[in-house]
Amino acid sequence: MHSPNDKPVARPSMVIDDRECRGPVPDALETCGLFHIDVRRLSVGDYCIDDALLFERKTLPDLVASIKDGRLFNQALRLVNARLPAALILEGTGRDLASSGMHAEAIQGALLNVALFIGVPLLRTRNAHETVRTLCSAARQRVAIASGALPRHGRRPRGKAALQSHVLQGLPGIGPTRASRLLRRFGSIEAVIAADADTLAQVDGIGPGIARKLRWTVKESPACYAIA
């Protein structure tokens, strides 16, 4: 039973770029009923939650096309310059890349640039419904963080060394201490990413298990998109 003083929980708002409104994701967002939805032109991104979180969505065929014509890097830079927490959602499976005409190494290289050197996180989904679940989860976690239920990370670190450590801490099993050890051993993020599992495992505190996870994270074939 609710107290008379209980305040209703406000529904998050969702702005959808009008160029995205004919796709399957807006329909699924309407069906889920979580958001107050407004469709209008966004200067950057495809979906904006509460004027606080920004998402660019790309199907895998569009990802390949945007790598070929250079749009991907311009869009990633605009996301960073938007001054909101932002992410790139990659939607699809390995089947969508079968006729792309682009080598997996070229796609991987482009995504490494976006994630590690431009600084835009990558989120992967298999279809529109998974994309909607990701957006809903992001909205709920934003509310949880704002209410103090989850740790807040504050400002991004300043200085190249601090930023390199911050980027490495986004990899599985890597905290501040291990990030520092990796940078001391290899000298740069690029060298860490290029190192093989055996070499990574020799770093104090890494070991074979974490080394395998690191290699799996940064070297992934399109087959990993396939539906189980």
In short:
By secondary structure, the chain is an alpha/beta fold. Helices cover 47% and strands 13% of the residues.
List the helices and strands and how they pair.
Elements: E1 13-17, H1 24-32, E2 36-40, E3 47-49, E4 53-59, H2 60-69, H3 71-81, E5 86-91, H4 104-118, E6 122-125, H5 128-146, H6 160-168, H7 176-186, H8 189-194, H9 197-201, H10 207-218
Helix pairs in contact: 1-5, 3-4, 6-7
Largest sheet, in brief, is: 6 strands, mixed
Q: What Rg, in angstroms, do the CA atoms define? A: 19 Å
Domains, number: 2
CATH architecture of the largest domain: 3-Layer(aba) Sandwich
The CATH class of the largest domain is identified as Alpha Beta
N-to-C CA distance = 43 Å
Mean pLDDT: 84
Total of helices: 10
User: What gross morphology would you assign?
Assistant: globular
Read across the widest sheet, the strand sequence of neighbours is: 2-1-3-4-5-6
Secondary-structure-based class equals alpha/beta
> Can you tell me the CATH topology of the largest domain?
Rossmann fold
Unreliable residue stretches = 221-228
Number of DSSP E strands = 6
Can you write the helix and strand succession as a string?
EHEEEHHEHEHHHHHH
Approximately how much beta-strand content do the residues carry?
A: 5-15%
Helix content: 40-55%
